[in-house]
Amino acid sequence: MHNEQILIVEDEPAIREMVVMTLEMAGFDSLQAADVSEAHQQVVDHRPALILLDWMLPGDKSGIDFCRMLKSDELLAEIPVIMLTAKSEEDSKVHGLDAGADDYMTKPFSTRELISRIKAVLRRSSALSADKPIEIGKLSLDPKGQRVTANDKVVDIGPTEYRLLAFFMSHPERAYTRAQLLDQVWGGNVYIEDRTIDVHIRRLRKLLKPHDCDTLIQTVRGTGYRFSNFIEPV
To answer: Where does the record place the OmpR/PhoB-type domain (predicted)?
Structure first.
């Protein structure tokens, strides 16, 4: 049996009830909220293991707004978020992932796939939230505080680039294809183009460049990218 609590943020009662039943059958406990205000209160009171977040919500704030708010809060940023939405266009998915969502599901979805996605995201979240800091070269990553420093100076980094860097630093000296990075960092069955990885790699390198750490992320021709402190001679 699982002990994790999953917060369902969805304004349609019928969908909430279906998801609650699905989670209970899989051994998860459920929390519910119909809007951002209720969701925030549930997060503060219970700190769920994961949030299933509908894109469209009543009121002034959307699911995307709530996701951004969570990921900008140092105390709440590590809670994984799976976006649930009827929007199927690729740019909407990229928009949700850029806001910090860990995965993305388009309605209607199968209950088996939902549970599979939840378990996968929880596994990745657990792997990235280990307490032991990782140090490679000038860089240090503190998973517990979700903080990155270079030469003892804090690197201002967004949630998506943090997850990408955390994966790289947890798996150094190995080349990964763009498809592998999409699967490991964003989750399987996320239908976004490989060029999305290139965009986030450029952003991450730009953030690390002032600290002379951008060369740690190396392009492997014909494959993808590798994180390494070893610079091959030209």
So the answer is: 131-229
